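Continued from yesterday's entry.
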Amino acid sequence: VQLVESGGDLVQPGGSLRLSCAASGFTFSNYDMSWYRQAPGKERDMVADISSAGTITNYKDSVKGRFIIFRDNRKNTVYLQMNSLKPEDTAVYYCSTQASYWGQGTQVTVSS
């Protein structure tokens, strides 16, 4: 299993970013996918997850209405669209599957 995140960047408060996670080594369309984040000095926590077919999504309360998780099973890729970004969204963002596999992470920094 390989998960490769991309799309992290430095962005101003109120801005937007789209993260991508390209998956390989397993049958992507059979598995739920998740995005997690870890800020400096804090535990890693779940931001959003999506069912295998993309029909069910869940979000951390603090990102509801601002973030959207979606997937393209033809491209074996899961995305996290992040809007109205806040400084407290600054973290390394990871994608994960099957509660066992993680990508290397991508840094998102929200700062003016």
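--- second protein ---
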Amino acid sequence: QVQLVESGGGPVQPGGSLRLSCAVSGIFFRLSVMGWYRQAPGKQRELVAVISSGGNTNYTDSVKGRFTISRDNAKNTVYLQMNSLKPEDTAVYYCNLGMKYWGQGTQVTVSS
């Protein structure tokens, strides 16, 4: 059974940082394309960042230069380092594997 478990969300002030983690089990993680998505209230879910099995990354324009996606294949874990957070980054963040499997989501709230 494939499981993706996110952690690391929470409240943070504008300009602050958070690191999200997504631990994967039940599948061969090393060859999987991993992504982070987010969904704000009343909006569609959007792709934030993606990382290939080889470590190539891509980001949506609104987070370029602020967010960094990375993976640790030894730990079957993908990370999203979020710096210089803005109120518009407030959303539920979801981990995705291969455009098929989803985590349960973790809430990120950026507010003063």
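The longest strand covers residues 18-25. The chain has a mean pLDDT of 96. Will compare against the first tomorrow.
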